[in-house]
Amino acid sequence: MTATADRPVGVDIQENEQNRAVIEAIEADNDDATVRHMPGLVRVTSPGRLVIHRASVEERLGREWETHEFQLAIISYFGHIKEWDDDQILIAWDH
Hints:
It is built from three helices and seven strands. It is an alpha+beta fold. The chain has a single domain, classed as Monooxygenase component MmoB/DmpM (Phenol Hydroxylase P2 Protein, Alpha-Beta Complex), CATH 3.90.56.10. This is Monooxygenase.
């Protein structure tokens, strides 16, 4: 049985120019993240948790970015949304 801390979580993001900054920020902020490009989407996975920091996205995007914009980028995710506020989104498992 896989421990919750190691159980992969992830997100599938539409592959387009607008979402490139989001993908780059996720990859930069999650050392253990694996990024896999597939037709039309990018799957980002990480053991245990995946965090998306607003400031990291804004830095790469060159403009203000609100975390609710993430809803427009994602196709699906696996794990639980543990936290979603103005500064970050955290995906992890409860058990």
